[in-house]
Amino acid sequence: MPRGQDLLDEAIALISGAGQNELADRLTAQREKFFFKSLAGVPLANKVKKAGTALSGDGTDGTVEAVEALVSEIEDKADAPGTVLT
Amino acid sequence: MTSDVYFMDARSDSADTSLIAKTTTVFDAAGLDKLIKPGDVVAIKLHCGEWNSSAYLRPVYARAIADRVKELGGRPFVCDTTTLTYSPFSTRATELDLLQTAERNGYSSAVLGCPFIVADGYVGTSDYRVDIPEGYLLKEAYVAQAIAAADVLIALTHFKGHGMGVIGGALKNLGIGAQSKRGKFNVHMGGHPKYGVGAAVKFNPDAFTGKENDTEWELIEEACPIGLFKVTDDNKIEWDRDRCMTCLGCLGVMNPRGIFEPNQMLFDATDIAIGDAALGVVKTVPKVGFVTLAIDVSPKCDCAGFSDMPIVPNLGVFASADPVAIDQACVDAVTESPGIPGSLSEEMGVEGAGERKFDLAGAAIEGLSEQTTINTAVVNGLGTRDYELHHVEPAGPDKFRFPYDKRPTRQRFARMFEKFQPFPFDRHDGRGYDRLEEVDIEAVKPHDGPTVGTHSHAAYHGDGTSHGPNGHGAPGNQWHPGEEGTRTHSTTHEH
Q1: CB burial class (10 A; 0-12, 13-18, 19+) of residue B485?
Q2: B171 within 8 A of B275, measured Cβ to Cβ
Q3: Is B483 helix (H, G, I), strand (E, B) or coil?
Q4: Which residue among A49, A82, A86 places its CB closest to the CB of B257?
Q5: What is the DSSP string of B370-388?
Q6: Does B273 lie in the same domain as B253?
Q7: A79 in contact with B, Cβ within 8 Å
Q8: pLDDT tens, position by position, B59-115
Q9: What residues 162-191 of chain B have any CB closer than 8 A to a CB of chain A?
Q10: ipTM of this complex
Q11: pTM for the whole thing?
């Protein structure tokens, strides 16, 4: 499985486990996009996994907001048609 | 079989532990000095950096090696080679472009103390073809002419990541860097019936959004040096893929648009070919040695037009006669090192000590391996992954003194200062300068700001203007750092 999808799955499980099903569903909707099948999506998947870990730790408003912000950022960026090679 | 790799770390607290001194210290420790006989022509091959990259090796390291070569009686030159036209706006694809980029990056004969040469000529067709029947994939290589003609090759390598090669080490310095442009087409699988771009890449012409929506659509046609792309009046893209040379110039245009889907086989095959082409160089040049600096370990190579922050701290300097062992030693050192917070290694989740860094933080696509080139060079017999790491001791400070005048201070300056005394003994009762007798030193050391107020007579108020007794119009005011209104940095830090 691509690393981006793998990290995203971990994030989805953490966020869902913390009772934030709507946020988890929004991430699930992004999972099959090319962004997460390429390395381009790995940094954001990694960030949302870390935010999911923090959320499952305390579940305060701050940690929910952090996950929400990353989910929105992912929704903005995941529709890129291709990937940049360097 | 085990190879010897000589190493000094990146810490420094004296002249002989400077990275420059360590570069020549490990060079000698590895016995590379013994490769050079009086009169030998010595090619020092390095990567001179791309236009706007900044992590490439400072020229002083090449200067230090060139000076050492001259001490040994050799005749050095420093060199790099022309690149493929691997972007629509390449900056090193001809000798003229390369020389101008190299010069901007500090590589000139004045700096190096020897000529800087473009080793494969103006276009990149000056080369020497060598058979490599031992090759795993390649059966021939095209070595840049000036390198092939040299008696000795010293590969001076900056160790870093690379989008296609995964790592940029000694093997890549030879397997790409020492190949002519013609040789680089070979290594990048140009014309290959299975792995070349023309054969391997998935072409999605329907991803083109049309001339009206894509303001830079003309780049699709302009990215190919032999004009294999055409955008028709009805917004269709035609590609004569059978003639593709795999120059890579279109990938940066096609991939972000989704018109091309990268094919992992192309990347893997190129990484294999690098290991084979490196063998071609070693077979061509009679004597070859390797010095590698694992510093400023940027994730995306010196051939990118930028340099991201390093993924690991500076690690040190390595030298060996075995390019496989030295690359493996560098990979192992990076793996063992913790990643730098905030760098791409952390972003990709591989910042931990013990984690492989380059497969994710170096490679442009997933599934590549930092071991592919190294393993290929084991298979074709170029070297071994098994090495013994020798920690080299500093050579002592005497060896690294300023070479142009080794006399101590009084011998050098007494007569000069008699004639041109720089200290104004004749002013202020011999104290020389106008200064207060004493100030409260502790008052300006607290980290939360000074404990004394701004003096009403202060000459400089921190805003680029001068006031008070020594301010504008006052005799002797020499302080002019800049004009008001020229500052653009607007971030405010209040304490």
Answers
A1: exposed
A2: yes
A3: coil
A4: A82
A5: TTHHHHHHHHTTS--S-EE
A6: no
A7: no
A8: 999 999 999 999 999 999 999 999 999 988 999 999 999 999 999 999 999 999 999
A9: 163-164
A10: 0.83
A11: 0.90
